[in-house]
């Protein structure tokens, strides 16, 4: 097969490309230039898609003896990921930019261009597994090493995208093995630290980054009954479940710590309450997709597990498509679920699908006003 290996400049994508070459595929490496500041330098494990990452990817491609190119996707990345991130926070939601990047850049824009150029598959260094069912249809499954499993951020992939995806690291039992393999192959990225945080906010200061773009507009912090307990500098600087940085001027009447429960951007208001009020009994989203074949009867309730964060534990739930939404009811209430987050649905190790959460139902009744 002709395989396009997406090479981020990290050890995972380099080893994935090496395994594709070793498997006998005709491999071409490509680095996606996503930053609008191509001279940006990397700081330890913070940031990615920098000029240093591009050079690391090229060194790896040279060591593997494969052609290497840099494709400028910075404009598409700004529109589909960065601008979406800002718009979601403006709307009082908590987005996951990694999901949008995988959905719209790595497995939409990149795959579209790869297929147009005659490639059969796109290879990445994600820790996930692709299996084929009895009917020959491809399914997305968790990686062998659950500690490194990245199937959650791939939950947005469709059947068509899975048909052209390749994840050579899916069966690898540990990251240590990948690093050892990179060292044995003479790849200079063998000891390179993993990147973390949001790639376009390398210093990790999301609130400051948003304030620079959206400004600061003071507003009220209120209890669920409407009692004003403090003031904020901009509702977009808060996320559901946040405790630190609330600057509430006086203790709550019940003496319990306060957490962000709701964000109302139109009123520029942040609602806070006790931890137990974060628990939700239902979550739903109209923007849902299936990763491979859809359930046989999605309009009938079925058992599943739901995961709401990349590193969260999956929890048992009941799912159903109703009134244009994928509705998920966890067997036990879930805490800290925010609109804008992604709920990924599993059946066993298989990723069945996902939805962007539009609404939640609180497990704790609203107090009478």
TrEMBL record:
<feature type="binding site">
    <location>
        <position position="32"/>
    </location>
    <ligand>
        <name>ATP</name>
    </ligand>
</feature>
<dbReference type="InterPro" id="IPR023382">
    <property type="entry name" value="MnmA-like_central_sf"/>
</dbReference>
<dbReference type="InterPro" id="IPR014729">
    <property type="entry name" value="Rossmann-like_a/b/a_fold"/>
</dbReference>
<keyword id="KW-1015">Disulfide bond</keyword>
<feature type="active site" description="Cysteine persulfide intermediate">
    <location>
        <position position="199"/>
    </location>
</feature>
<dbReference type="InterPro" id="IPR046884">
    <property type="entry name" value="MnmA-like_central"/>
</dbReference>
<keyword id="KW-0819">tRNA processing</keyword>
<feature type="domain" description="tRNA-specific 2-thiouridylase MnmA-like C-terminal">
    <location>
        <begin position="282"/>
        <end position="357"/>
    </location>
</feature>
<dbReference type="GO" id="GO:0002143">
    <property type="term" value="P:tRNA wobble position uridine thiolation"/>
</dbReference>
<keyword id="KW-0694">RNA-binding</keyword>
<dbReference type="GO" id="GO:0103016">
    <property type="term" value="F:tRNA-uridine 2-sulfurtransferase activity"/>
</dbReference>
<keyword id="KW-0963">Cytoplasm</keyword>
<keyword id="KW-0820">tRNA-binding</keyword>
<dbReference type="GO" id="GO:0000049">
    <property type="term" value="F:tRNA binding"/>
</dbReference>
<feature type="binding site">
    <location>
        <position position="125"/>
    </location>
    <ligand>
        <name>ATP</name>
    </ligand>
</feature>
<keyword id="KW-0067">ATP-binding</keyword>
<dbReference type="InterPro" id="IPR046885">
    <property type="entry name" value="MnmA-like_C"/>
</dbReference>
<dbReference type="GO" id="GO:0005524">
    <property type="term" value="F:ATP binding"/>
</dbReference>
<comment type="similarity">
    <text>Belongs to the MnmA/TRMU family.</text>
</comment>
<feature type="region of interest" description="Interaction with tRNA">
    <location>
        <begin position="148"/>
        <end position="150"/>
    </location>
</feature>
<keyword id="KW-0547">Nucleotide-binding</keyword>
<dbReference type="GO" id="GO:0005737">
    <property type="term" value="C:cytoplasm"/>
</dbReference>
<comment type="function">
    <text>Catalyzes the 2-thiolation of uridine at the wobble position (U34) of tRNA, leading to the formation of s(2)U34.</text>
</comment>
<feature type="domain" description="tRNA-specific 2-thiouridylase MnmA-like central">
    <location>
        <begin position="209"/>
        <end position="273"/>
    </location>
</feature>
<dbReference type="Pfam" id="PF03054">
    <property type="entry name" value="tRNA_Me_trans"/>
</dbReference>
<dbReference type="Pfam" id="PF20259">
    <property type="entry name" value="tRNA_Me_trans_M"/>
</dbReference>
<feature type="site" description="Interaction with tRNA">
    <location>
        <position position="341"/>
    </location>
</feature>
<feature type="active site" description="Nucleophile">
    <location>
        <position position="101"/>
    </location>
</feature>
<feature type="site" description="Interaction with tRNA">
    <location>
        <position position="126"/>
    </location>
</feature>
<protein>
    <recommendedName>
        <fullName>tRNA-specific 2-thiouridylase MnmA</fullName>
        <ecNumber>2.8.1.13</ecNumber>
    </recommendedName>
</protein>
<feature type="binding site">
    <location>
        <begin position="6"/>
        <end position="13"/>
    </location>
    <ligand>
        <name>ATP</name>
    </ligand>
</feature>
<dbReference type="InterPro" id="IPR004506">
    <property type="entry name" value="MnmA-like"/>
</dbReference>
<dbReference type="Pfam" id="PF20258">
    <property type="entry name" value="tRNA_Me_trans_C"/>
</dbReference>
<keyword id="KW-0808">Transferase</keyword>
